[in-house]
UniProtKB/TrEMBL annotation:
Organism this protein belongs to: Vibrio sinensis
Keyword NAD: no
Protein's name according to its UniProt entry: Peptidase
TM segment ranges: none
PROSITE patterns associated with the record: PEPTIDASE_M14
């Protein structure tokens, strides 16, 4: 990847002010509609699941209600599985993969788990195909107390409303070529720092928690996804996106310290999936399938561990 000479908003080396943030917001436009592409899929599940509204975004509460999907056989004796999609709204398979899992697999696993799915955490980002929210804040760096990002604050509130701790958390993401062509240059401009070009991994990988990596669990996710799409190889430095690859297709981040969605719970098992949708050998459907395979692989692993113990 190569860097552009300058990002078109702001002054090089200076953090954005309110005028710059407004200029960035004015540069965005609606490219697809949450109410047409996502909400109908959620509504179609009402007969089989408990669909609840857990909040709404103040930018337009009627346009952006926030929904979660819960298995009907909720039982305090079963562990909770949380699935979050669309924390970065532009990462399409995170949203539609979560919905596909609900439609095709969730009922199968409901006999073992209480499952709650928030398929589109950032609907404004979904509509504008954007990483940030309208305030130029990254929801996936905003999972902390008194979060200024409504998207993150609403998920934090949802997690706190549950009657027990989350046991397993899948946070569904994508790494796209636009991370380098648009989103990282914008981040550098916003923060007044130099943009240093990076590389995008060619394939699927996961991000585990540095403080609780659960590498066997991560490996099970990788092996399940391998049946659907290719796994990202390490670069010449043995890394993926600047982090050491600790095993095939797996890197680690300090989830809580970075304010990531993966740190919103104290789960025993957690992973952040990263699908690569820009490969010429992968279709949109296969990207959704990879997200479903990741969840299935992780759940099957946890069930196998339970049987052994």
């Amino acid at each position: 990847m190569s860097s552009s000479n300058a990002y078109p908003i702001g002054i090089a080396g200076m953090k954005w002010n309110d005028t710059d943030r407004q200029a960035w917001r004015d540069s965005t436009s609606i490219k697809r509609e949450y109410q047409q592409e996502v909400v109908p899929k959620i509504e179609a599940l009402r007969a089989r699941f408990d669909v609840e509204q857990y909040g709404a975004l103040s930018y337009d509460e009627n346009r952006f209600p926030l929904f979660c999907i819960k298995t009907k056989t909720w039982d305090a004796n079963k562990p909770i599985v949380l699935i979050t999609g669309g924390v970065h709204g532009y990462e399409t398979s995170g949203v539609h993969g979560a919905l596909q899992f609900a439609d095709t697999q969730a009922e199968k696993y409901a006999q073992y788990f209480n499952i709650i799915i928030a398929p589109c955490v950032s609907p404004w980002g979904y509509e504008t195909i954007n990483r940030w929210n309208p305030l130029a804040l990254d929801p996936n760096r905003s999972f902390y107390a008194d979060s200024p990002a409504e998207e993150s604050a609403n998920i934090i509130k949802l997690v706190k409303s549950l009657d027990q701790d989350v046991f397993i958390h899948f946070d569904l993401h994508e790494t796209t070529d636009t991370d380098e062509t648009e989103f990282r240059p914008a981040l550098s401009a916003r923060d007044g720092i130099e943009y240093v070009p990076g590389t995008i991994p060619d394939g699927f990988y996961t991000v585990g928690d540095t403080d609780n990596p659960q590498l066997e669990f991560q490996a099970a996710v990788i092996e399940s996804v391998r049946q659907v799409t290719h796994i990202a190889p390490a670069d010449e430095h043995g890394q993926l996106i600047g982090s050491d690859m600790v095993q095939d297709g797996v890197i680690l981040y300090p989830m809580d310290a970075l304010g990531l969605c993966g740190g919103v719970t104290t789960c025993v098992y957690g992973t952040t999936t990263e699908v690569y949708p820009d490969s010429p050998t992968v279709t949109d459907g296969e990207c959704n399938d990879a997200q479903v395979a990741a969840i299935v692989g992780g759940l099957d692993y946890v069930l196998s561990v339970t049987e052994r113990t």
